[in-house]
Amino acid sequence: MRLMMSTKIDYKKALNKAQLSAVTALDGPILVIAGAGSGKTRTLVYRVAWLVEKGVLPREILLLTFTRKAAKEMLERASRLTNKRCREVSGGTFHSLAQHVLREEARRIGFSPSFSIMDRADMEEAAHALITEVDGEKRPMRFPKSSTISAVFSKAANMEKSLSEIMEIEYPQFLPIFPQMEHLLQIYKEYKRKNNLMDYDDLILFLRLLLKENEDIRLTLANRYRYIMVDEYQDTNTIQADIIRYLGSSHRNVMVVGDDSQSIYSFRGANFRNMFEFPDYFPEARIIKLEENYRSTQPILSMTNALMDQATQKYTKCLFTRRSGNEVPLAIDTGTERDQAVYVCRAIETLLDEGWALRDIAVLFRAGYHSFELELELARRAIPFAKYGGFKFMESAHIKDLLAHLRVIINKEDILSWGRLLRLIRNIGAAKSQAIIEWMKKGDVLPARIDKWPGSKKEREGLVKLAKLMGSLSTANLRPEKAVDLAAEYYNPFLKERFDDFPRRQLELEQLISMASRYRGLRAFLDDLSLEPPASPVDVRPLDREDYLTLSTIHSAKGLEWGVIFIIWLVDGRFPPEKSFLNTESLEEELRLLYVGATRAKDKLIMVYPGQGVVYNPEGWGGNYRRGLSSFIRALPQDVIEHRSFVSAHISPDGAILRSGLFTGSMDRPAANLSELKPGDRINHPAFGAGVIARFLSEDRVEVIFKDRGIKLLHLGYTSLEKV
Predict the structure, then answer these.
(1) How many whole angstroms separate alpha carbon 401 and alpha carbon 310?
(2) DSSP 616-665
(3) Cα dihedral 608, 610, 616, 618 in deg (nearest 10)
(4) How far apart, in whole angstroms, are the C-alpha atoms of residue 330 and residue 413?
(5) What backbone phi and psi angles, to 5 degrees, belong to 345?
(6) Is the pLDDT of residue 406 over 90?
(7) In terms of C-beta density within 10 A (0-12 exposed, 13-18 middle, 19 or more buried), how is residue 500 classed?
(8) What pLDDT sits at residue 532?
(9) d(C-alpha 314, C-alpha 295), whole Å
(10) Fewer CB within 10 A of the terminal residue: the chain, N end or C end?
(11) In this predicted model, what pLDDT tens digit does every residue of 496-542 receive, in sequence order?
């Protein structure tokens, strides 16, 4: 290490003892176990600043995070602390590192450096197209959907398990066609290599292969990156852990930071055991625990500490805080599913009366469909909210259509993109597009000469327009924003023809132009979009409000915090889900997921469950299962949690409303005469608008088809319906 004595930062004053130990550790491997809210990011930021201050060249530091945005923000913070040169530190994701190295070394593994990166939708499209090449027309059953096929292939790659293992565990219903699935996987691999394509999984698999088989590449990268830091190490898979082991094998200056208690992504292939195996690969590793929490009050931490005491495999840690606050977390039994939504809304209204802002409150849940009842009640009470955990910007058809026109300029062998853009043209279907692609490949035809296809007839006008666009996009030194603008101008007629909501989609295409303006080259722009797709910009501020409630799956809320957290549906069968009881590892991950949700709370933690209702599973793999408070909460010591019950309203013999629970006041439940409603009646709903009653599922549940919102299941006990 190059030592320089000058320093701008008083590290002892800025950091606690454990953080300081991690930041100023000398050469060698370090495992930092960072509890929730313990300043993990702060530690990494100060570590970067410390290394640069001590004379390490910024370009010799590699900071790996799970989003490029996180890396950029950390390096910006470090540069503001001490030295603008911190921005020169190499920061990014495993996948961005992999694509950078593979662009340099692709020929060693039989690819051209111009390879295209396939996202999940590309994988699905390829799988769908290749099914026809699988022999066995008399197979015993249909193939899975292309989304399922790509999920199976990806999970097998990420978890390094055989196709049969993944299918036996997760898709046993398709085992009769396992030979055909195996054949399809082989065809898919050949297809990618033939067309110079790599999917996300290939990026890290090929990087590991390069490191494993080429000592010169290992040494080159080790000399390039002399100090390596990895964030969220508990979320890495085995492939990524191997990459770190190879990169650090010579100098061994590797710091990994993570929390085994927050490993919740096994469905993506994450292996939380990497935290426990790091000392096996680096026996001399120092283990440093960050246990002082800067987010939550001690009662919340006492509960979450007790929660993780239930885990069988863990690094024992005890979170503590100096923050004031003595409100014990609550477990509220609302009795019924309906009253769970009513309770949460009434509690939120009470919090607003106490001076809280909606932006300081979040409602978290295990799965997206768990908030259905609550969304109805929030809409009825006109409480604005944003929901996170669903739609992705880059998965939209119009975004993929436009980008296909740019991708073929970078990689003219990108068969998926050619197929996509050709099928937009009138009179060109799957067969004709395939014929055009084969003609281009055979004759090595340039994109701008696609209108010379000898078989053109009715589609000639469309091919001429496409050729003109390809010529414009092939202009030397064309700025990325200009390329997107040209493609958007060409694509707009297709957009208006294909989508009823084209004005909204047009705004998203304009967003792409803005994104592209930050890049000098088209390839870098397309690589970044593929490696780290942005979230949808739509509906971020509902009703144009600055202040709104957050609804989120816990997976989407990881890393965030709010003053008040509600966690709903804490019943066995939903959280944890029924299928997790079949597997100890799955059940422990559900425990960690609850831990992640609970540790988002700063001041108040309220866990809610309908204790009287039978859990209905809408996913179709079971039926009615367990009921009652989650076994995770039942196992907690009584001194770390307070149990209460809430009943929306009871009518006494003299007509007075008797109440129990956390909040008091009238429930303003809508009184409506619904006895005359029958299937076929036209109705109006205050939130969903006009609709028609399809059928009654029970005395208090009705299925309605709304003109603008599709099919909704409503509960007549508190739904306001107006007969038209």
Answers:
(1) 49
(2) B-TTSS--B---SB-HHHHTS-GGG-EEEE-EEEEE-TTSPEEEESS--S
(3) -30
(4) 59
(5) -65, -45
(6) yes
(7) exposed
(8) 58
(9) 22
(10) C
(11) 888 866 776 887 788 788 778 878 899 988 987 777 555 443 333 44
Average pLDDT, the chain: 85
Whole-angstrom Cα distance, residue 14 to residue 169? 49
CA distance linking residue 493 with residue 697, whole number of Å: 44
Instruction: Characterise 626 by phi-psi region: left (phi > 0), alpha (psi -120 to 50), beta (else).
Output: beta
Q: In what order do the strands lie in the sheet with 90-92?
A: 90-92, 61-64, 227-230, 254-258, 30-34, 286-290
Q: pTM of the prediction?
A: 0.75
Which residues partner with 364 through β-bridges? 552, 567
Rounded Cα gap, residues 617 and 369, in angstroms: 10
d(CA 574, CA 337): 12
Backbone angles phi, psi at 520, to 5 degrees: -95, -30
Provide the Cα torsion 598, 600, 606, 610; round to 10°.
-60
- What is the spatial order of strands in the sheet that 722-723 belongs to? 710-715, 701-706, 689-696, 682-685, 722-723
Provide the token pair at 134: 């699988």
194, 218 contact by CB (below 8 A): no
Both tokens of 350, joined, read: 């009470």
Tell me how far apart the alpha carbons of residues 40 and 66 are, in angstroms, rounded to a whole number.
14
Token readout for 166 is 């993944």
**Do residues 109 and 523 touch, judged by C-beta distance below 8 A?**
no
Q: Report the alpha-carbon distance of residue 172 to residue 399 in Å, rounded.
A: 35
**Residue 164 clears pLDDT 60, i.e. is over it:** yes
Pair of tokens at residue 144 = 């899975």
- Token output for 613: 């209702």
| Per-residue pLDDT at 3 exceeds 60 | no
* Residue 315 exposure: Cα atoms within 13 Å on the Cβ side: 26
Ramachandran assignment for 25, one of left (phi > 0), alpha (psi -120 to 50 degrees), beta (any other): beta
Q: Would you state the structure tokens that stand for residue 355, as one six-digit string?
A: 């001076």
Is 601 in a helix, a strand, or coil?
Answer: strand
* pLDDT cut 90: percent of the chain above it: 56
